[in-house]
């Protein structure tokens, strides 16, 4: 064999197809749906949705062979320990969250997006889910940025897919322009980091940043700070949150649910990877910054949610949007704590994200059900819901109590205590106090909405715009099977986890895989 042939052979490596199966299956099914859309009659378009759901189920099942959490691929031929794709426990937990969230979104979308172009919708949803599933496995900045954009770009189109709808178009434009700006800033930071270290692999960056020449220290710090901006935008951290309320209102409700959970998971996953894995040497830069962002985000989110008027159009969606911003602040706390103590604090963020995903998707599922008879989706439209839909009212009440951290939503209480403990253990007492104050503020609007579910319906509200069909009466409409399944799945998961909340933390930290 010639020298050239030997050199070429050394560049060839095998691909662990099992490790990359979850995002690959999701992407492949997305392409299949796009092509099938050309041949499926208009009356049979719902078949594309069922194909998408089946694909997401298969992608979730593909996680089972990876439960040992020790798979890597696309590694350097010169150093097999440095890889671009790693399926460890952290990756598997986030992929479960992302693909499970996409599956529940798909169930809500079967009946909630009938007026949208089916082929395009399902292709965009699966493409975004594939990028979101790829991101937690990414172990170099190039793959990380590509995965982030693959998850984000289809989301812009999903938000603006309601053709001729002014709110939808405006929401998509705001989302797109702000995201592009944040991405541009992040790419500038990535270029600074690469100029400083000469590598894109996260573990290699960490080792190179341990010994940065004095003349490059400022450039490295600037790169670290700017890189965080893109992920802070995805997490909806203040002041990068301004797109959230209008985007959630303008988007189809299942898409808003998707952004609130999967979109947020993408941001937090990327933030964890670049801070804890790539930039531990600069914890003195990102630690205080993230702690400040956490305090500001939870405060602004809760105060804005508190100000929502019950009779304002789309006030229920806006409250969930601002609640989502506030929850992002809680999720940032353990990441900030990791800068002051140990990486084990990250488990609290993952555990909280799992809890939040279950109950928030459940809340959006009930909102989608109510929107079928009350298109304006005001908080006032939920008054007396127990009288017409007792199971839906009980489910939403449970989800809201979980978000508030009150019994019987034990899983919400456990998640908040876990995050609070992370701040205290890291010596961030001031941040723990800010969080405690914000939890009390949030109790007011969560309980106000919960109590409205069980109050007697106001006679003068029946038949109002977006309300019941006739004054003094409420018409019972059949609950679509996919929506009922989504509500049931999230409620059962929330109740089961409230019975054994410690399982979430053990699962998030990988102990169940041992």
Essential attributes:
514 residues, mainly alpha, two-stranded antiparallel sheet, single chain, 20 helices
User: For the largest beta sheet, what order do the strands appear in spatially?
Assistant: 1-2
Q: Nearest-angstrom radius of gyration?
A: 23 Å
In whole angstroms, how far apart are the ends? 45 Å
Overall average residue pLDDT = 84
Helical content (DSSP H or I, runs of 4+) = 55-70%
Strand content range: under 5%
Strand segment count:
2
What is the molecular shape? globular
Task: Please give the largest β-sheet.
Answer: 2 strands, antiparallel
Structural class, from helix and strand content?
mainly alpha
**Which regions are unreliable across 5 or more consecutive residues at pLDDT < 50?**
5-9, 460-475
Count up the helices. Answer: 20
In N-to-C order, the SSE pattern is HHHEEHHHHHHHHHHHHHHHHH
Descriptive notes:
- It is a single chain.
- The chain is mostly helical and 514 residues long.
- The protein has helices at 3-10, 21-36, 46-61, 89-112, 118-134, 141-159, 166-197, 202-209, 217-234, 244-250, 253-278, 283-306, 315-338, 346-371, 385-388, 390-404, 410-425, 429-453, 481-499, 502-508; strands at 71-75, 83-87.
- It has 20 helices and two strands.
- It has a two-stranded antiparallel ribbon.
- A hairpin with a 7-residue loop joins strand 1 (71-75) and strand 2.
- Helix 14 (346-371) runs antiparallel to helix 16 (390-404) and helix 14 packs across helix 20.
- The protein is globular, with a radius of gyration of 23 Å.
